[in-house]
Amino acid sequence: MSRLKSIFASGKSAFATKDELATYFIAHFGVKPKKIELYKQALTHKSISADFNNERLEYLGDTILSGIVSSYLYKKFPEKDEGGLTVLTSKIVTRDKLNEIGSLIQLNEHIVAVEFQRGYKNIVGNAFEAVIGAIFLDQGFDKTAKSVYRSLLRHIDLMELDKTKTNFKSVLIVWGQKTNNQVVFKGKKLPESSKYKSTLYINSKKISSTAKDSKKEAELHLAEKALKSMFVDEL
Q: Which of 1, 23, 55, 150 has the fewest CB atoms below 10 angstroms from its CB?
């Protein structure tokens, strides 16, 4: 039985005490909560309440987190161009990475949700973003930036992460969703050829085309080219 399920079964409050939460956030995020309700909301999944949950804080935290990480990388890697910084930022703020780091710092032990163990794949990463949103509202930008380093960046080997293979198509699609830009790949198998031709459109504007041995290879190539050339930055 998970920690959350055992709490519900015993009839106790789902949340840790104010002092326990303060101790946790001081240790892992470097901040002492002023408005504790903000942090409780950041830790509350929508399965618990339709009104008091972390979805709005997650939205805010997502934006704040991306900005802080981008600024940090800009200063740390002066040799990287826009495309390289965009790709590395995307690797850090993916749900998988936030799920991983959130679990590492035991954020999962403080999240309140129904059936925590099943069905909510990104619950930890989403809560991580919501916590960043709560810290921003409670503490301001400067302390939030320091908190992101303490809770996230110092746990990541940036050099190793930079070497890992990137799914550029996923990065481009996520970018489109977050910035309200429509990303569409259209393609077809070329007649009398083993090649697959794919064309990338952003907001109905043709960006580029390519022909590769497979649909996947063609789309990944187009996405990588778009990101590294920063076509998306001009739209």
A: 1
Choosing from 58, 62, 138, 219, the catalytic residue is: 62
Domain 168-234 architecture:
2-Layer Sandwich (3.30)
Q: What is the pLDDT of residues 45-101, one digit of tens each?
A: 988 888 999 999 999 999 999 999 999 999 999 998 877 888 888 889 988 899 999
| Residue 129 is a catalytic residue | yes
Contacts of 103 (CB under 8 A, 6+ apart): 124
Report the topology of domain 3-163.
Ribonuclease iii, N-terminal Endonuclease Domain; Chain A (1.10.1520)
pTM: 0.72
151 close to 144: Cβ distance less than 8 angstroms:
no
127: tokens are 């809560």
First-to-final CA distance of the chain: 49
Alpha carbons 54 and 125: distance in angstroms, whole number: 12
Q: Which of 58, 129, 138, 219 is catalytic?
A: 129
Question: Where are the domain boundaries for CATH 3.30.160.20 in the chain?
Answer: 168-234
